[in-house]
Amino acid sequence: MQQHEFKGVIESLLFANQHPLTIDNIIRIVGDEVEKKVVKGLLAELMAEYRGMERSFHLVEVGEGYQFRTKTEYAPWIRSLHKIKPARLRQSALETLAIVAYRQPVVRAEVEQIRGVDSGWVLNSLLEKGLVKILGRKEVPGRPLVYGTDRRFLEVFGLRDLSGLPTIQELDALKEEEQAEAPPEPIIEEEEGAA
Questions:
Q1: Which of 46, 133, 141, 171 has its CA 20 to 30 A from that of 147?
Q2: Could you check whether 3-75 and 91-179 share the same CATH topology?
Q3: Is the distance from CB of 146 to CB of 106 less than 8 angstroms?
Q4: Per the omega criterion (within 30 degrees of 0), is the bond before 86 cis?
Q5: What is the largest CA-CA distance in the chain?
């Protein structure tokens, strides 16, 4: 098979699959006759081609794989088509998910120590949504479950891998930027002699 034919095969596999495909998945499907660096190069070519086309979708590296995704500016129409309300996570779920993402592998007691409240039901909810997974058990008395993020976490948040998470410094800078943009609180000066 010629290289341009491989590119067509890879494109069709990505188009037909609703989840990200890893390079290893692609090689397993097309056969070991194609090298990993060739597949990676063809994926890079496809990504560049779709960027240049200015289409409503693009090929992105997400969830440790590659996937066609609709550009975010078209989301309202897609939701209308499917009558979907975007899933929202409660503040408690976002807090817990952030702790798991940044501290993994982590046990429930560590999450609860950071949050200051019982987090069992939140962890179970995140497990059901496929955002976190059980990595095993910690080798300490009681052998508590150890949690980490699932590949779906990367897909939902559009991350290639965990290195795509913002650093603490980036989060602090964003927080400072938001505070700088907030209107200043009015200062009310009290008159002398007022109690």
A1: 171
A2: yes
A3: yes
A4: no
A5: 91
Instruction: Delimit the domains of the chain by residue range.
Output: 3-75, 91-179
**Which fold, 91-179?**
Arc Repressor Mutant, subunit A (1.10.10)
Hey, which of 34-38, 40-44, 77-81 has the most confident mean pLDDT?
40-44
Instruction: Report yes or no: 53 and 46 within 8 Å, Cβ to Cβ.
Output: no
Summarize pLDDT for 133-146 with one digit per residue, the tens: 999 999 989 899 99
Q: Could you say which architecture CATH assigns to the domain 3-75?
A: Orthogonal Bundle (1.10)
The tokens describing 180, both together, are 């700088």
> CA 67, 72, 74, 75: dihedral to nearest 10 degrees?
90
Contact 19, 155 (CB under 8 A): yes
pTM reported for the whole predicted model: 0.60
pLDDT score for 173: 79
Rounded CA separation 62/143 (Å): 33
